[in-house]
Automatic annotation (TrEMBL):
The lineage of its organism: Bacteria, Thermotogati, Deinococcota, Deinococci, Deinococcales. NCBIfam families: heat_HspR_dupli (NF047377), HeatShock_HspR (NF047375). The keyword Coiled coil applies. InterPro entries: DNA-bd_dom_put_sf, MerR-type_HTH_dom, MerR_fam. Residues 10-79, 124-193 form the HTH merR-type domain. Keywords: Coiled coil, DNA-binding. Residues 233-244 have a biased composition (Acidic residues). Residues 223-244 are annotated as: Disordered. This is HTH merR-type domain-containing protein. Residues 76-103 form a coiled coil.
């Protein structure tokens, strides 16, 4: 199913509730919490898309199968909505670029070749320093790595090295567990989505860059083609007999 069709609002609340085996009042609660975002018809009727149905099923899985509390579910769905929005922004950007190509417009300036790694992703902190920065025991950091909540780099000597982004993720884990009371299963879901969001953003930006570079090459080739009358002149010259 295409992205557009999954976002098309088609189900009234009674049908949506039946599809996910929930009471309509539960769907209204989740909407007030910002967990789902049904649209409204011109008559103010709630209409749910296939993506909303997917999100409702995910909420049920988190609460019933993993025992994640509502605060944890809110974090998961906030990240899921960020992913959805990012995908929408990417698709809009691709459409804009395609429009530019059709109109033979000038492409935007491109980043310099060989752009350096984001400083937030540079692995710099050994585990003892990272643990001190986030007020955790080093063994806790090792546990979180085994759970794939964080993904530190390794030096050539296999020493764990943590980036600023890893530090941010560790502080987020502490907030989720200590302030919001989210269980470890919920934290795993949230951090999985955070990693997915980071990777998706990076991949989409890379795809946009490659498309822009392709446009630049096409526009450059188009500008360097000889004018039609020049090609005719070249052809006439080749056809003229040579002097004896």
């Amino acid at each position: 199913m295409s992205s557009d069709s999954k976002q098309r609002p088609v189900y009234v609340i009674s049908v949506a509730a039946e599809l996910v085996d929930m009471h309509p009042q539960t769907l209204r609660l989740y909407e007030r919490k910002g967990l789902i975002r049904p649209v409204r018809s011109s008559g103010k009727t709630r209409l749910y898309s296939e993506r909303d149905i997917d999100h409702l099923r995910e909420i049920r899985r988190l609460t019933q199968e993993l025992g994640v509390n509502l605060a944890g579910v809110e974090e998961v769905m906030r990240l899921q909505h960020e992913l959805d929005d990012l995908q929408g922004e990417f698709e809009a950007e691709i459409e804009r670029i395609e429009d530019e190509l059709r109109q033979q417009a000038q492409p935007r300036a491109l980043p310099a070749q060989g752009e350096r790694i984001d400083p937030k992703d540079r692995p710099v902190y050994v585990i003892s320093i990272a643990a001190e920065l986030v007020d955790m025991h080093p063994q806790t950091l090792r546990l979180y790595e085994r759970k794939e909540l964080i993904r530190p780099g390794r030096s050539s000597g296999k020493t764990r090295l943590y980036s600023e982004r890893d530090i941010d993720h560790l502080r987020e884990i502490r907030r989720l567990t200590q302030e919001l009371g989210v269980n470890l299963a919920g934290v795993e879901e949230i951090m999985r989505l955070r990693h997915e969001l980071d990777a998706t953003r990076s991949n989409l930006e890379g795809n946009v860059l490659r498309i822009q570079q392709d446009i630049t090459e096409r526009m450059t080739n188009w500008r360097t083609l000889p004018a039609p009358h020049e090609e005719d002149q070249y052809a006439e010259q080749e056809l003229q007999p040579e002097d004896d």
